[in-house]
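Any chance you could type out some protein's one-letter sequence along with its backbone structure tokens so I can compare the two?
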Amino acid sequence: MATRGERNNNPGNIRRGSHWQGLAGTQPDPDFCVFTDPKFGIRALAEVLLSYQQEGFDTLATIIARWAPSNENNTRAYVAAVAASMKVDPNIHLDVRQYSQLYPLVDAIICHENGRNIYPRTTLDAGLALAGIVP
């Protein structure tokens, strides 16, 4: 059975409120964006992470704390899961403008948000390319 993020083509579970490229004409989910294709949901996820970098969030721990605040999530567990998936220390400085660091972060967030990542690398790469990040 598809998760909410998968049904919405929004594997990062980005909340409604922004006018993202690729939004579906109808937004039936009251809380989360619905995209026409997963690549647009992945693009939005990447764009949010890139904006965090510009705001000075540059460690895995601070990025995830911003992405998944403790008033809505078990942020400590989220950080630990993403760090384990990426096989990095949560206090490592990341440069998400680099494909080699953004791709595994996006993959780990998708896995955490949905319990899995059903998207092939080509779909993730298409979304990242729409955000201007290529291998």
Q: What stands out?
A: The CA atoms of residues 22 and 40 lie 5 Å apart. The helical segments are 4-7, 38-54, 60-67, 75-86, 99-114, 121-130. Residues 38-54 form the longest helix (17 residues).
